[in-house]
Amino acid sequence: MRVACFSTKNWVRDSFEKANEDGAHDITFLEAGLDGTTVSLSNGHRAVCVFVNDVVDAEVLQGLADRGVTCIALRCAGFNNVDVQKAYELGITVVRVPAYSPHAVAEHALGMMLALNRRYHRAFNRIREQNFSLEGLLGFDVHGKTIGVIGTGKIGRVFCELIRGFGCRILAHDKYPDGELEEAGVEYVAVQSLYEESDIISLHCPLTHETHHMINEAAIGSMKDAVMILNTSRGALIDTGAVIDGLKSGRIGYLGLDVYEEEEDLFFEDLSDQVIQDDTFVRLQTFPNVLITAHQAFFTREAINNIAQVTLGNLTEVEAGEDPSNLVSPDMVAS
Ligand code: NAD
After folding, report:
1. HEC profile for 190-208?
2. In the chain, pLDDT over 70 holds for what percent of residues?
3. 159 CA distance to ligand 1 centroid (A)?
4. What does the radius of gyration of the chain's CA atoms come to, in whole angstroms?
């Protein structure tokens, strides 16, 4: 199939070329992201391949349909950036990669938890300046603490399995409790109880209308003092203004972000020569107890190879007229 692959980076090209060694698909690699201004780059292609920050709203979908595009192949799990209902109405098939490595993301969340607690990021900088003082680096034992996990699907489940090794109490909140996790000692509770009782809260649920800004002023107000919040899911689960207030008051003691609600204009690009215009993001960078990574939780060798293979497999199924194994349908979009 002729595919226009938007937001291409070197690692995308390398992994897709490797997965497409048999030449099954004719892929045009484009550096540009997909949005209303770049939709015309899809001319002559039957499918577009997009990533987390490409804009696939109703207007872009109409532009794609007008150009004969009949398939959107997401090379990620989340599909919050796609107007799935509109795609369905236009007869455009949307496919995704539901699981490429839950371990990659769960391990990254765990890494952020340890780095924030023991302040590895600060220690690294100090040692380079021959400052061997321990002042300000005091951590806590994770053992014996209560960790709250919101969303225990593929990633949240692995995260629970990893943190079980610390000997902590694990609280979880999910619409669909996982029986095996329950048997292993994970306690499912209402989200409010999780907020009130957890020392560390890690977010692993998708971004939906329901979860948008779930970490807001009221939620933060009910959390323990100096709570640690980790977000490796989607930026808009968190109301950034509310967490900045929480950090300033000390209510939030640690914040680990791999995602940010306005990340589209920042992440995945080298902006080191530019003046960042997003004052909210710049304010976040000023806190010593905030650790930010630029949507890299998924970024392992295993994960990117799986992404390329599954995406091309999805395109092969669509081209063959088969029912796609990894279809995204309107009923998957929670209201
Ligand atoms: P999944 O679908 O397997 O699991 C999501 C879980 O969240 C499900 O169990 C679901 O029931 C639960 N859920 C839905 N609504 C909820 C709510 N209101 N409250 C509590 N739980 C709720 O998804 P996954 O593969 O585990 O991925 C989770 C999220 O991680 C994705 O949606 C994506 O946004 C994010 N993600 C981030 C990266 C990264 O690189 N940072 C990579 C992959 C995925």
Report:
1. CHHHHHHHCCEEEECCCCC
2. 99
3. 12
4. 21
111 confidence band (pLDDT: 50, 70, 90): very high
- Domains, the chain, ranges and CATH? 2-100+300-334 (3.40.50.720), 102-292 (3.40.50.720)
Strands ordered across the beta sheet of 47-50? 26-29, 2-5, 47-50, 71-74, 93-95
Residue 4 — φ and ψ, nearest 5°? -95, 115
Task: For residue range 172-218, list pLDDT tens digits in order.
Answer: 999 999 999 999 999 999 999 999 999 999 999 999 999 999 999 99
Distance CA 229, CA 238 (A): 10
Question: pTM of the predicted model, to two decimals?
Answer: 0.92
| Active-site annotation, residues | 234, 263, 295
Rounded to the nearest whole angstrom, what is the distance from the C-alpha of residue 333 to the centroid of ligand 1? Answer: 12
* Chain position carrying tokens 């972000």: 257
Closest CA to 256 of 287, 282, 231: 231
State the alpha helices, DSSP H only, in 5-119: 10-19, 58-66, 84-89, 102-118
Res. 334 pLDDT band, cuts 50 70 90: low
Residue to substitute in 51, 105, 178 for testing ligand 1 pocket (most ligand atoms within 8 angstroms of CB)? 105
Tokens of 106: 């769960």
CA of 52 from ligand 1 middle (Å) equals 14
CA distances for 42 relative to 67, 80, 286, angstroms:
7, 21, 40
- How far is Cα 90 from Cα 222, in angstroms, rounded to an integer? 44
Q: Which residues contact 19 (CB under 8 A, 6 or more apart)?
A: 305, 308, 309, 311, 312
